[in-house]
Amino acid sequence: MAEGILSAEEFARNILEFFQVSDLLKDGWELRYEEKHAQQSCPYLVKRNVLRALHIADVGDAGRLDEHSRTEGAGMDATLRNMEEEEGEGGDGDEDVDVAMPDGRAVVAACRFDYHIVYNLSYSVPTLYFSACHQDGKILSLDEVWQSVPSHYQRRLQSERWTFITQQEHPILGRPFYCLHPCHTADLMTAVLKATSQTSTSHSNYLVTWLSSVGPVVGLALPLEYAKLCEKR
Amino acid sequence: MATSGQSASQAKQLQFAPMNSALDVGFWHRLSRKKLEEYKLDDSPKPINGYYYNGDPDGLPSRTSLDFNSFDEPIQCPPHCFPSHGTLLNFNTMDAFKSCDKKAELEKIAALIWTDITSGAALKDPSLLSRFLLLTFADLKKYHFVFWFAFPALCSIDSINVSKTQHLNQCFSEEQIQSLQESYDAIADQRKGLAYFLVQKQDDLLVVFPLSDWDLLPDKTQVMLGFCDPCTLDQYPGWPLRNFLALAAYHWSDELQNVQVLCLRDRTREGVRTTDHSLVLDIHLPSMKELHECPKCVGWEKNQKNKMAPRKVDLSASMDPTRLAESSVDLNLKLMRWRLLPSLDLDKVAQTKCLLLGSGTLGCNVARCLMGWGVRTITLVDNSTVSYSNPVRQSLFEFEDSLEGGKPKAQAAAERLKKIFPGMQATGLSLSIPMPGHAVGSSEDVLKQTREDVAKLEELIDAHDVVFLLMDTRESRWLPTVIGGSKRKLVMNAALGFDTYMVVRHGMKPPKEGAVHDTASTSDDGAACSSACDDPLPLSPKSPSFLCIPGDKLGCYFCNDVVAPGDSTKDRTLDQQCTVSRPGLSMVAAALVVELLVSLLQHPKGGYAPADTSAKDDHLTTSLISPLGLVPHQIRGFLSRYHSLLPSSMAFNMCTACSPIVLERYETEGFEFLLRAFNEPHYLEDLTGLTKLHADTENCDVLDFSDDESITSQ
Ligand SMILES: [Zn+2]
């Protein structure tokens, strides 16, 4: 087997081990199976609803709404403004006063990230797909996703080819997702495994090594507990 | 018990952090599909579901999340999340959305909750306490969605007061907290998503019980109410507590007038679990035992402007197939840049406006290749219609296009480009290009038409950055060569013989005085090519030069006419005039002319880039200035030998299309000059001193023959 890649069987074993650790840690990974190939169903991992508070320049919801009002004008927006005026004051007048967000907190956009780890047959490596959207379901633009990359990874994003983010259809769900393109994963893993003087076969959990190295770029950090899976057997 | 810094001596009214909605784009995808394939015009209530979580980091709002799985039965919550039962009302029109009786709809849900409380159903399945209502209107043409959530909460008949608010670790020891976690886990594992529960101290440890165990518990006044709290605020409990308190006030108010409430917040960070930050509230709970009708209900979500009104979201960027096609086309090109050529300036290519004169095999293939490079603005010009023989070779046409006399080629090609990729700004125009030696005649109408045609062509060339000469006659290339040269546009030329082709970029004359040019300066041509070559020798224009020539000294198609390659084609000249070329030839030449343009656009000097040649195999060793490689003046190919050459030649100072005298006359006399060129057979030859041009040309084989079987009117 070529360097830095992983067979589908090894991938399946890796993610089962991974899932067991996750279950203990209660960190929210789900194990799913692709349904269409009943005889050879390939498992994949999903972590839904990871909320990240992002300081994205000017993504105020109100701002976006206004923008639409200008461009779309007419019907729907007029009706919406109309409803605001009619019902805006009404409230419910309830004595159970809602708690407003406490003072002094900057308005941050809470964005939802979902992560999917899927095996890529043509590259023989795992691939990280993710979706990222605002609270109303509008997806983050590629630029916003780039801005969401923690500052200490920004340079890496520029310089390292294996961390670049692109948009692709999810191979199982068929909807557009962002992904860390798999074309350089094998190079990355060859380098990483060499550095730790292991090979992909003797290495006990390829998935953890890979994910802990690329995940943080898109806000996915792995607790140290997973590292136990990588200790040499 | 630990003392608390937060404890207040006098009681205040208990306040709750409101629930927020959080939607994943997958939810909208699924709703759109449901609406199109299943609901259609059915706007009756539909069961959906959401979930919330009690482990978020500080500062995040409590929220009920909906995603792609929200329509699935049974509910598929992510691990450690708690289900919420939703009712979806998807309206068919914005008016229906607006005029729906929202108060009544909310009351319906409130009644469900109240019935579940009073019947005891919620004691067996406490998740029934968490419900929501979602009103939507989906505009699936624009991918705009209007929505409004309500998280119904039953109000207490009297205010609920809180006398003390503490953290869990202020009330209980580490050991007790540990016992609480273990006991909770044991029960929660049996019942997926245990959101509401009872806690009692037994043997000084905290033990968790399901609500249905109430009757079994010994000293009921010592029971704590526990719920999983999605709120992260330090002083307030989250919304799910409200209906739980309604349940407790109805069933257990005798025993629990003063009760402790555990707001369980269960967070794992860096692999370490903690519940210490959970809140413990000491509250006074007014009884609802005697209440026989459903209490008042609140819970509409405010919009972004903090008003009681719906929200709107525009998802065209992620759902509109046209927009998706655009972004994936962009990404595909960016991928090429990121992976291979970091210095590639794709925007420059994308923004280049291309005018394609001729919409035959060359025009179609050039357009396709430009589209592949991300060029978005393409204008096609032709004056013929699609004939039966065209579609097999002309890659933008189909059989249908040739029916009923055939569609106009340029328009049909432009339409097809937009069908292939809706992001294209493609236009097709029928236009006859006047030709020298083809007398216009003196009729007023014809003259007027010719004048308009010339004006239109000038306007088109003005509005574009690049002019492609892809016509099937040599003469029709003359006028755009003159205009393009005068306007300092990039002029790209491709011409086909039977099995030979020629691709040439016209030399770009030095910028006009006072003209501001966006390309790198070329004023001193020596410098322009000094880095790459020695002084060009003054060469006879009749012999091809294999020395490096700066861009502004390069010849045009008509200069090159007289230095046509080899003599192997001479004998075939007559055949070629009425026959086709080898079918692959147009694809090869079209691809090369586009690739040459893109290489040129990436060259720092653009159209002024000195020409690379294949003389002495220079093309194999010379250092590349454009990131894409060589920028030759010409590519001449011989398909029979699968061979190509990269010659370059100087502008010919007697050229009928680009010599100084021609450009000067065009610029000063305009249409009057052109008219003489069209009408008077020897005018250009006389003007340039090349009286024998046509005779020479006929002997010298030309590479521009119809790639169409029929000879068109030219
Ligand atoms: Zn010329």
TrEMBL record, chain A:
One Pfam family it belongs to: Autophagy_act_C
**Disordered: region residues:** 66-97
Gene Ontology CC terms, in alphabetical order: cytosol
Per its record, what are the GO molecular function terms? Atg12 conjugating enzyme activity
| Start-end of Acidic residues biased regions | 84-97
Q: Does the keyword Heme belong to this entry?
A: no
Keyword Metal-binding in annotation: no
Q: Name one GO biological process term.
A: protein modification by small protein conjugation
User: Which Gene3D superfamilies would you find in this protein's record?
Assistant: 3.30.1460.50
> Which family would the database say this protein is a member of?
Belongs to the ATG10 family.
What is this protein identified as?
Answer: Ubiquitin-like-conjugating enzyme ATG10
Task: Cite the source lineage.
Answer: Eukaryota, Metazoa, Echinodermata, Eleutherozoa, Asterozoa
From TrEMBL, chain B:
Principal place where this protein is found? cytoplasm
GO MF: Atg12 activating enzyme activity; Atg8 activating enzyme activity
One Pfam match, given by its short name, reads ThiF
Residues forming the Ubiquitin-like modifier-activating enzyme Atg7 N-terminal domain are 14-319
Assigned keywords, A-Z: Autophagy, Biological rhythms, Cytoplasm, Protein transport, Transport, Ubl conjugation pathway
GO BP terms: namely: autophagosome assembly; autophagy of mitochondrion; cellular response to nitrogen starvation; piecemeal microautophagy of the nucleus; positive regulation of catabolic process; protein modification by small protein conjugation; protein transport; regulation of apoptotic process
Say which domain of life the source belongs to. Answer: Eukaryota
CDD domains referenced in this protein's UniProt entry, alphabetically = Apg7
Q: Where in the cell is it found?
A: Cytoplasm; Preautophagosomal structure
Q: Where is the THIF-type NAD/FAD binding fold domain?
A: 336-606
Q: Supply the InterPro entries for this chain.
A: Atg7_N, Atg7_N_1, Atg7_N_2, ThiF/MoeB/HesA, ThiF_NAD_FAD-bd, Ubiquitin-activating_enz
Where is it found, in Gene Ontology cellular component terms?
phagophore assembly site
What's this protein's family per the entry? Belongs to the ATG7 family.
Q: What is this protein called?
A: Ubiquitin-like modifier-activating enzyme ATG7
Q: Which organism is it from?
A: Patiria miniata
